[in-house]
Design brief:
Radius of gyration: 25 Å
CATH architecture: Beta Barrel
Strand content: over 45%
Shape: elongated
CATH superfamily: Outer membrane protein transport protein (OMPP1/FadL/TodX)
CATH class: Mainly Beta
Number of strands: 20
Largest sheet: 20 strands, antiparallel
Distance between the termini: 70 Å
Length: 453
């Protein structure tokens, strides 16, 4: 039975490497591939409608999530904001060495993406603002179903896979911003990632059923195996976002944001159930459950960006951002002290992952009704958001559209649609069988900002 065991274990290891954060079978070689955009900068339908080019704008209650240095641009004393998001993601996976393992897998998810309360005031002849926020930053939602089979001289088998992952990383943010000079402001957001305060954990479960025949001695022997495994990860840490805003003149604003690196504590629990049956050799049957609970850590990388906004006239404004993340500093340390690159699953000092650069462009045109004190905006944006990968980043592109309705000094409602796609991405995850996938993601954001609550 040794041939079967080695063969099955190899298959499980290879297949699991296609999934996010799976150190259980892979020992120290943990792999991380978060399905959502890997560098979330901020929230809000107004910003998303402009393609996320908002670092140099950041003049509403969502500024704390984009550039805390712009929070003093919130002129109204109190503001409350809430953002709802809906996501529909399709991942068409393909194992080119196994042509039958191919197809689309979809997942739907909706939640409250962002909540904030902001107060601006004057102290010591300086404009200031404080804010408390909740922001959903990463999502792990994914579900795959597929069948894999193989035939060789020694064995034939069929594997039925069902993999599901859910959960999120969120942060509670405390922001302070001060207008240092009439044209220059500085802000800082302290992000608290703690599962006791906001949701900061994700879960994985996968169920594999195998049916086949062994033929090591020319006599086919049937076998079957069922594996069900669940993993839970709890994530805790603290970091800060530093933001600057420079009002060059009435038309041009330049902003910058710097997100500090930090070490997150990971509490990792693994429960594995396995039932193996050999009808002709019942003494070799196995049935049992194992539970592993261990403490690990993840080093999150430094990231920073710069953006500008230009007001062409009273109605039209344009914006552009560029954002860099130092993924070569991203590492994972397991309970045995093994330090690896979570992206390549290689020892950290041997990995070859480059920093990524996001580029975002956006615009907004306002239809202003001065009599009724209302504004109807039209927004648009384009973006390039590469995802870290071995040797070269995976390329993702997208576009967005948005509109809304604002009643001056009362409320603002905004809605935005975003489409993101990547073709032939994640090939490095599963080289043994020439894995690839195409990703298409549709997202809808709806924001409500209430003034003077």
């Amino acid at each position: 039975m040794k041939i079967f065991t080695n063969k099955l274990l190899y298959g499980i290891i290879c297949c699991l490497l296609t999934f996010p954060v799976l150190p259980a079978f892979c020992g120290p070689y943990t792999l991380i591939e978060i399905p959502s955009i890997f560098d979330p900068l901020g929230s809000g339908a107004r910003a998303i409608g402009r393609g996320g080019a908002f670092i140099g704008v950041a003049d509403d209650a969502t500024a704390a999530s984009w550039n805390p240095g712009g929070l003093v641009l919130v002129k109204r004393k109190p503001e409350f904001s809430i953002v709802y998001s809906y996501m529909d993601r399709n991942e068409c996976i393909e194992f080119k060495n196994y042509p039958d393992v191919k197809g689309g897998n979809s997942i739907f998810e909706q939640d409250i993406n962002f909540i904030s309360g902001t107060i601006s005031f004057e102290q010591w002849n300086r404009n200031m603002a404080v804010s408390i926020t909740y922001q959903h930053l990463y999502d792990f939602y994914r579900e795959w179903r597929f069948i894999m089979h193989d035939i060789s001289d020694l064995e034939s088998y069929v594997d039925q896979w069902h993999y599901r992952q859910d959960g999120r990383l969120s942060a509670l943010g405390l922001t302070y911003c001060i207008q240092v000079t009439p044209v220059f402001s500085f802000g800082v957001t302290l992000n608290i990632w703690d599962d006791d305060i906001s949701p900061n954990q994700w879960h994985q479960s996968y169920h594999i059923e195998t049916r086949g025949f062994l033929d090591p001695y020319g006599l086919p022997e049937p076998y079957s195996e069922t594996i069900h495994k669940t993993e839970t990860y709890e994530f805790k840490g603290i970091n800060a976002n530093l933001g600057l805003m420079w009002i060059v003149n009435k038309q041009l604003h330049i902003g910058a944001v710097f997100k500090t690196p930090f070490q997150a504590d990971i509490q990792h629990k693994i429960v594995t159930y396995r039932n193996t049956e050999y009808p002709q050799f019942p003494d070799d049957n196995y049935k049992g459950t194992t539970v592993i609970d261990r403490k690990e850590s993840m080093n999150m990388p430094l990231s920073f960006g710069i953006g500008c906004s230009y007001k062409v006239n009273r109605n039209l404004s344009l914006s552009a951002d560029i954002y860099r993340t130092e993924w070569d500093d991203f590492s994972y340390e397991d309970s045995l002290g093994n330090k690896t690159c979570p992206i390549t699953r290689m020892p950290y000092h041997k990995s070859d992952v480059d920093p990524t650069y996001q580029v975002r462009l956006g615009g907004e045109y306002l239809f202003i009704n001065e009599v009724n004190e209302t504004i109807i905006p039209v927004r648009w944006g384009l973006f390039y958001v590469p995802s870290p990968a071995e040797n070269n980043p995976d390329n993702y592109y997208g576009l967005s559209l948005g509109t809304g309705f604002t009643q001056n000094n009362v409320f603002s409602f905004d809605i935005a649609y975003q489409f993101r796609y990547g073709n032939d991405v994640s090939e490095f995850l599963f080289k043994e069988v020439n894995f690839t996938q195409d990703v298409k993601e549709h997202m809808l954001y709806a924001s409500m900002i209430i003034y003077q609550f």
